[in-house]
Amino acid sequence: MYRNLQLTTLALLIALTTQIASAGVLVPAAAGDPAIPDLVYDASTGEVSLLPDASSIIGYSLQNATNSFIPGNHTPILVGVTTALTSQVEEAALAPGSGSIGLVFPAGLDLAGLTSLLTVNTVSRSLGSPLVPFDLQVVNPPTTSGGADGVVPEPSTYAMSLLGIAALGLYSWRRRRQSN
């Protein structure tokens, strides 16, 4: 039975690893409603891609209150009206489009950071349809080490450690001397 449990656990781990590997790091799984387009943000570069899912994109508006966009890196994906400023990136057209709009966001944000960056995040799927927010996705999210990697103690830490070891040595030396 123990061996069967190990084989079952191993099979489960292989299945999960295969699913993760087949999904890939750069190609995220669908987020939320397939009828709502996805905004895919690559945290390592700041690149933003707009994917239509089972819908289409004929316009979008992305705005922030901190002037954090990089308008010089904007690549229009819709043949129509385009606005690219540090506070907003917008496009509108009659024909749908999708793809990368460039490295327009600052790099290194997680999903919470991306959500707080965007004060307006809307997409138009077709003429006459209501504006809806994009499904936000983050690929290559920043990792935190929890403070364990590369931590160097201050010199005073070493000094206090040496003083403590010296005090313990002196105490044990005096104790041995008194017992003899």
Explain what this protein looks like in three dimensions.
The chain contains 3 helices and 8 strands. It has 180 residues and is an alpha+beta fold. It has a domain at 35-139. The protein has a 4-stranded mixed β-sheet, with helices on one face. It has a 4-stranded antiparallel β-sheet with strand order 4-5-3-7, with no helix packed on it. A hairpin with a 3-residue loop joins strand 4 (81-84) and strand 5 (88-92).
Brief descriptors of the model:
single chain; 8 strands; alpha+beta; rod-shaped; 4-stranded mixed beta sheet; 4-stranded antiparallel beta sheet; 21% strand; 180 residues; 3 helices; disordered N terminus
Mean pLDDT: 81
Helix % is: 25-40%
Global structural class: alpha+beta
What proportion strand?
15-25%
User: Helix and strand succession?
Assistant: HEEEEEEHEEH
* End-to-end separation: 61 Å
Radius of gyration: 27 Å
Number of strands: 8
Low-confidence stretches: 1-30
Any idea what the shape is? rod-shaped
The major beta sheet can be summarized as: 4 strands, mixed
Task: Reconstruct the topology from this structure.
Blueprint lengths: L1 H22 L14 E5 L4 E5 L7 E5 L17 E4 L3 E5 L6 E4 L8 H7 L2 E5 L10 E5 L15 H25 L1
Parallel strand pairs: 1-8
Antiparallel strand pairs: 1-2, 2-6, 3-5, 3-7, 4-5
Short description:
The chain has 180 residues and is an alpha+beta fold.
